[in-house]
Amino acid sequence: MLLGVVLLYVGAVLAVNGIWLIGQATAATRLSRVTAAEAAEGHELAGEQVVAATRRSQASPLFIQNREVAVLNLFTGFIGIVVSVTLVVQGNKIGDLSSIRAAGLILLFAFTYIWVAFNQFLGAGGRAFGWYCLFVAITAIPAGVYTLQSAHGNTALIWLGINWFAWAVLWAMFWALLALELPIARIAGALAIIEGIGTSWALAIAILEGKLAFLSAGPSCWRSSVSAARQGRPPGTGWHWPSRRNRTCSRSPPFW
Fold it and tell me: 135 by DSSP, 3-state: which?
């Protein structure tokens, strides 16, 4: 359920960030066209004219100010940190590697939202952040492979595994946009909106409404794990994947 909460706000922040990217790119294009047109006529825009042209270029409802979008990025990053710390504490207490892994992967993305927010307040260019996005994109690929290999037919895990590859593509585009400075802001923004809805918001709603669930350890599995630990065996050695008819006992999901 905690993952559902995180994904709910990730869906929101990706959609808003996508709108922000498109709006910023559109405003910059319109302003450059006005400036180029005046230059072609042999005129140079005065200070008041520049301000007026800037306001006209920012009149679109898609235009969002940098510091305004930073608020949602900060809040989403904060939620990711809280959930990650909770998983680390719980996972370390019972020796659950899957919880520790989930915390690390959630923090990997939560930090991107915090970095975006601070860049808005600091007025930073974002090139270093772009290279971090490449690191995230590369890391997401093996995470997706591992999740799909361990899904065992579970719909939520299959959906999550596919999402990892989608996020890898999106974060790779952020790298190309910020580090390589390719003119793909509109494309990256549109993809962020699509993925915000399809990979995060929709999955979050399905989880929080109880339509989908990750396989988790039931009470019988917990007793089996405790018994294994008392016998000197690693925790979880008594767990098993259930048959199709009995889903009451299973391993903790590979991501969650």
Answer: helix
Q: What is the pLDDT along the chain (256 residues), one digit of tens a residue?
A: 788 899 999 999 999 999 999 998 888 777 666 566 555 555 665 555 555 666 676 777 788 888 899 999 999 999 999 999 999 998 888 888 888 888 999 999 999 999 999 998 888 889 999 999 999 999 999 999 999 999 999 999 999 999 999 999 999 999 999 999 999 999 999 999 999 999 999 999 999 999 988 864 443 343 344 344 445 544 444 333 333 344 444 444 444 4
- pTM assigned to the model: 0.79
Q: Please report which residue ranges of the chain form alpha helices under DSSP H.
A: 2-40, 47-57, 66-94, 97-122, 127-149, 155-178, 185-195, 202-208, 219-230
Helices 185-195 and 2-40 cross at an angle (nearest 10°) of: 160
Domain ranges of the chain: 2-208, 219-256
> What kind of fold does domain 2-208 have according to CATH?
1.25.40
